[in-house]
Amino acid sequence: MPKNLATYKSYGVRLSAGNLSPVKYVQSTASIGLTHNQYEWNLIQDANKTAQTTLMLHIGNRFLLGKGWLAELTGYYNGRMAMGQMKIASFGQITAGIQKKLWNDRASISLYSNDLFHTNRVNMTTRIGNSTARTFEKEDHCILGISFTWKFSKGFESKEFKRKGEAFDTKRINL
Known about the structure:
Elements: E1 7-20, E2 26-43, E3 46-66, E4 69-78, E5 81-83, E6 86-88, E7 91-102, E8 107-114, E9 124-128, E10 131-135, E11 143-150
Antiparallel strand pairs: 1-2, 2-3, 3-4, 4-7, 5-6, 6-9, 7-8, 8-11, 9-10
Protein name: Outer membrane protein beta-barrel domain-containing protein
Organism: Macellibacteroides fermentans
Pfam family, one: OMP_b-brl_3
């Protein structure tokens, strides 16, 4: 923690669910969190404080389209939050991709993009005493990509760690 911050308190709760399958061809994950951050600091003779309770959401979906095709659609949202002497405006992002498996699953080609709606921009406000400073990010974080993957081999299966009927520690303990 920076030396100019006297105290920092954070409390939160998170609930996650994975392997959700609302219908046969959809696999989903979801997470929701609620966090409260509080910062206090002294500046010259004034005591200052920022505090904010923040909602955070994440949802991921994979769509099994058949015949080697699959698609993904994922999104997250972070509500307004306190971070040190700043308050950060809410932001989020949606990503999407589609993939086709080729040649008996030995290869695949994918097309993907993130930040489809240009919403992953961190805008901040800082208030200290009678002064206010604001930043507005204008960078474009949207990426469009294509990838090709080739599997050279199937890999190796690991040997069974423990044989049936064999005591667990016989290799480590000399009796």
